[in-house]
Write a structure and sequence with these properties.
The protein has 185 residues and is of the alpha+beta class. It has one domain. 38% of the residues lie in helices and 12% in strands. The chain contains 8 helices and 6 strands, in the order ααβααβββαββααα. A hairpin with a 2-residue loop joins β3 and β4. It binds iron/sulfur cluster (SF4) (2 copies). One iron/sulfur cluster is lined by residues 2, 4, 19-20, 23-26, 130, 145-147. One iron/sulfur cluster (SF4) binds at residues 1-3, 27, 99, 107, 109-110, 115, 117, 122-123, 126.
């Protein structure tokens, strides 16, 4: 669930990429995947709760979900070199916190014009989508994303979404720190 359709007057970040206005999928959960949203840990939960207090008073920005085998497997695929730590953070039969969604599956921070959170408040995984890093290399996630389908090449996707690899690296570094993982080398 990443950052799309956000008007430039709210964020000090690139204007809305047109492709996202046509797609607008990534901040809405697909039925059946409700417990598969990216996990959030203490630091981000606290930041989101503070933001929710201002933006959506009375609405909890996070919700618990079970650590299903499918969820753990998905996280292990994302962090193939950090399995021990991932299993520590996501114990079987435990649960994780994730962004809360409305009855229609939309993230509670999704507004009519995109994400209502300032960029520096958004979860790191939202800043990264639809990118990821694997062994220090930028790669594109396997995701139902119109921008991926239309871009055809990683440089074009970066250009289309007006993202810079350096900013993505920073977001990934933040995510690894929050997860208690060693810095990317
Ligand atoms: S926090 Fe913002 S970018 Fe992330 S899923 Fe929610 S609306 Fe989308
Ligand atoms: S094109 Fe990709 S990044 Fe943009 S809204 Fe769709 S899924 Fe999200």
């Amino acid at each position: 669930m990443p950052a799309c359709n956000t008007p430039p007057d709210i964020l000090a970040f690139p204007p809305t990429p047109h492709v996202c206005a046509r797609c607008a999928k990534c901040c809405v959960v697909v039925p059946g995947d409700e417990d598969m949203l990216f996990p959030l840990f203490e630091e981000e939960v606290a930041r989101l709760e503070a933001a929710a207090h201002e933006l959506i008073p009375g609405v909890s920005p996070v919700a618990p979900a079970p650590n299903s085998p499918a969820f753990l497997a998905a996280m292990l695929r994302l962090f193939p070199d950090d399995a021990l730590r991932v299993r520590e953070l996501i114990p079987e039969a435990g649960r994780h916190m994730q962004l809360a969604v409305t009855g229609t599956g939309a993230c509670v921070f999704l507004g009519d014009h995109g994400c209502r959170l300032p960029r520096d408040v958004r979860p790191a995984h939202c800043l990264l989508f639809p990118f990821w890093f694997h062994r220090n290399r930028l790669r594109v996630l396997e995701a139902d994303c119109l921008a991926i389908r239309e871009a055809g090449a990683i440089w074009k996707l970066l250009q289309t979404l007006d993202l810079k690899e350096a900013d993505l690296r920073e977001a990934f570094g933040r995510l690894r720190r929050i997860w208690g993982l060693p810095p990317m080398i």
